[in-house]
Design goal:
single chain, about 290 residues, mainly alpha, 11 helices, about 70% helix, chaperone
Length: about 290
Amino acid sequence: MKGKYLLTVTIAGALCALVLWYFDTNTQSAEQIALQYPTVQKPKTRATTELPVSSNPIPICSTVTKSHKAYIDDWLITLQHKLQVENWPQFIHQLPACLQSLAHDYMHYKVALTEIDPNLNMHERFEALAVLQKQHFSQQVISAWFKDENSWHVHTLARWHILSDQTLSDDMRKSLLDAHISQLPNAQRQIIESSQRFIELKNNWHAMDYNQFSANFGGEAAERLVALQSKQQQWQQRIQHYKQAHQAIVAQAPLEQQDERVSTLKHSLFDSNELKRLDVILAREQAQSP
């Protein structure tokens, strides 16, 4: 039974890592800002196109490095804050001359990312990303800018193949996942191990005590989690008290008085926000009852 639980946590952790990756690649960060094909317009005045680019020093461009991508991302974030992303060609002159061509390719790469079919499976999506990188950048730029990202993709795909292989027994799948995770680069391994701890906390936190919380998450977090446990227990006790009192009202009070008494009961136990939560809980329970 313990082995089954560990397998569930391991697989859930791996899946959580996949979800974290997907979330990371689809949020509006500097790395994945959704773009439309821009409509280039000549600025009316020079003043309308002057935006601060970055507080970082202007990069030396003799060799492409990841810092150049960070510099372009700073520029792009500034445009986003000013609602000028679609007009980026009007502002590209603000970048160092040696970065303008790279920025041009980078922006068109981002446009192409938005056109990837969302229905692709993970293997197909990673292949599409690799193709787009080769279409828009030299191998030197790909190595400098996307090495870590592509490494994550390779390892994520390996876990996906293990998890989706129906010919493997549970024990074999767990062994392969454990072996794979143990050989990951340190940063990637820490992400997955953290996700596994999160899954364990999510599934078992109600039964854990302060010492278990402290050992896994530190003393300060343990105090907050114990306080949350107590608050959750009190909430459940109030719900249970409401249900019992509600049943008594329905069984004993005259029909014409029941609605008023139930309303009085609710407002005596819950504030306005809690009443909304209570209504959702009761509606869900009613929908699930036979």
